[in-house]
Amino acid sequence: MKKKFSTKWKSSKQPRKQRKYRARAPLHIRQKLMAAHLSKQLREKYKTRSLPVRKGDKVRVMRGNFRGKEGKIEEVSLKRLKVRIEGITITKKDGSKAPVWFDPSNLQIVELNLDDKERLKAIERKKAKGKEEKAKEKNAVEKKKAKTKEDKEQAKKSGSKKQETKSKKQGGK
Predict the structure, then answer these.
(1) pLDDT per residue over 66-96, tens digit each?
(2) 100-111: buried (b, 16+ CB within 10 Å) or exposed (e) per residue?
(3) Spatial CA neighbour of 103 closest among 63, 50, 74, 70
């Protein structure tokens, strides 16, 4: 029997494979797919671009018919990979109200729900990880610059040596 979810899969241009990946993803990966971008103020404060949404977060709708509306997250559905926002409903033909489900990629987190201490720890870990990656990237750039300087200097030296050997050869004939 074949596995339901492939751990080896990286990416594909084919939408059918992307849909299959999302549909068959286990919970720990689904949780990562439920991330939304942070507002500019939160981005500066927490030094990260996005975080997984949680019940109680205040979000702003960035795409669709409800663009610009804000509200608290009422429910997070990992099964649907969607979230429901308080106060945003549609009116059906029969007059009843129905909740609207949003994809987290179309939302922006305006205010975080920090009731959970574990979430604070996760944010701190992510902040520290971001700093480490930036430091590594900076070191790599500096090493690359130093290496290119050395290569240029060696090229100049070897170029002057080649000219000397050419002049010696011509002078000896």
Answers:
(1) 999 999 999 999 999 999 999 999 999 999 9
(2) bebebebbbbbe
(3) 63
